[in-house]
Amino acid sequence: MDVRKDIKDIVKGVLEERFTDVTIESIDIEPDVDEDGDPILRIRIVFDAHNKTLDPRRASGLLRHMRPRMADCGVLDFPILSFIAKSELQGKNAEAI
């Protein structure tokens, strides 16, 4: 079982459910620890949207939808999400970020 792929699938699935007008270009996951030593996952999402932004009202509830699905896969690390619009990459490859 590939936990990293499961997490990417969960993140992508939740994003596609919540943002029907957004295309996910890439998702990068990096395990880390917070300042208290607790495990976290830094999840960097490169997206493409018509208006080049995400609706903050929809984005604010993303973790509420992701965390139970991640827990079902045995992942209890707290996800820290960051978003980068594809237009901000200025010609860089989304997978390379």
Description:
This protein is α+β, with helices and mostly antiparallel strands and 97 residues long. It has a single domain (3-87), classed as 2-Layer Sandwich (GMP Synthetase, Chain A, domain 3). The chain is 32% helix and 32% strand. The protein has three helices and three strands. It has helices spanning 3-18, 56-59, 62-72, and strands at 22-33, 39-49, 78-85. It has a three-stranded mixed sheet with strand order 1-2-3, covered by helices on one side. A hairpin with a 5-residue loop joins strand 1 and strand 2 (39-49). Helix 1 (3-18) packs antiparallel against helix 3 (62-72). The longest helix is centred in the first third of the chain and has 16 residues, at 3-18. The protein starts with a helix and ends in a 12-residue tail after the last strand.
Task: Name the CATH architecture.
Answer: 2-Layer Sandwich
Helix content: 25-40%
SSE pattern, N- to C-terminal: HEEHHE
Strand % is: 25-35%
Instruction: Sum up the overall morphology in one term.
Output: globular
Number of strands: 3
Largest sheet: 3 strands, mixed
Number of domains: 1
CATH secondary-structure class: Alpha Beta
Roughly how many Å apart are the termini?
A: 25 Å
Oligomer: single chain
Provide a count of the helices: 3
Look up the CATH topology: GMP Synthetase, Chain A, domain 3
* SS content category: alpha+beta
Mean pLDDT metric: 89
- What's the alpha carbon Rg, rounded to whole Å? 13 Å
Strand order of the largest sheet: 1-2-3
Low-confidence parts lasting 5 or more residues at pLDDT below 50? none
CATH homology-level superfamily? K homology (KH) domain
